[in-house]
Amino acid sequence: MELRQLRYFVAIVDHGSLSRAARVLHIAQPALTQQIHQLEEEMDAQLLHRSAQGVIATDAGKTFYEHAQAILKQVQDAKSAVAQSTDKPSGTVALGIPQSVSNALALPLLTAVRSTYPEITLQLTEELTGNLITQLKSGRINLAVLFDDGQLSPFASTPMIEEEMMYITCAKSRFGVSGRKPVSLAKAIEAPLILPGLQHGVRPRIENIVRAQGMTLENVIEINSVAILKSAILADIGATILPVAPLLSDIERGDMVAHAIGGERITRTLALCASKNIPLTIAAAAVEKLVLDVTDDLCRKGRWQHTQLLKRE
Fold first, then answer.
1. Which end of the chain is more exposed for a tag (fewer CB within 10 A), N or C?
2. pLDDT one-digit tens code per residue, 140-175
3. Of 46, 42, 20, 18, nearest to 32 (Cα)?
4. What single-letter DSSP state applies at residue 306?
5. With contact defined as beta carbons under 8 Å apart, do 309 and 161 qualify?
6. Gene3D superfamilies recorded for this chain (predicted)?
């Protein structure tokens, strides 16, 4: 198996066409087809399904595509690590951020990277926590912001913040409470709760706290998209328990109302994680430090609301 075969395969899947991939790769289509045939023979599996509509990956091909991307990313990182200098880091750094964090962190971080390290290309990936863990383990991304649920031992992790979760409804909701007073956890879970699925870092945390109080979540509407979750809350289909960051603009406009949860506070801890097995490039290490600096600045200035900075070694 050769690296060029991996590049060819990834290009075909990305473009959905042998002819388009051949043009991008500057290789004759028959030669490209021959290389893919050799790759499939070595893998002893059909990786691509060809039809009049184009080319798509088979189930085996989808699995191989994930590994091929990770291998190519690590090769590129190795080249960058050798070529770049410590005083002027350059190259591509891939950072994964959960959907519920990106609204607070993504834009300030992009701005900071562009102004501080103009020769670094930051690739931001917004994903569910479970997907980020898989990508970080495989090397497809260099860094990831993850929820510290006590199971981050496979990674090199640095504490970032503790973030409080609130009971959030639309304004004048039938599930709302009067005034701005805190709502009890028992009261909060009486409403239909619009929550992410269990593969999302927020949901297991809520489930565990509710269970520890001798209660259960009886009426949950699972929505993994922040945009759809917002629409459902505004339509008063239910309430949610989330950090305010992904819904802050709606809260500040008065379209939604956030209440602290009294008694048993529900918080989540965020950590910045990297692989223990794959060394960071100079550029990735620079971005790692910048993520922590930007987070500290956002919290101290009150721009990342209802958060508390955590001690670091």
1. C
2. 899 999 998 788 888 999 999 999 999 999 999 999
3. 18
4. S
5. yes
6. 3.40.190.290, Winged helix-like DNA-binding domain superfamily/Winged helix DNA-binding domain
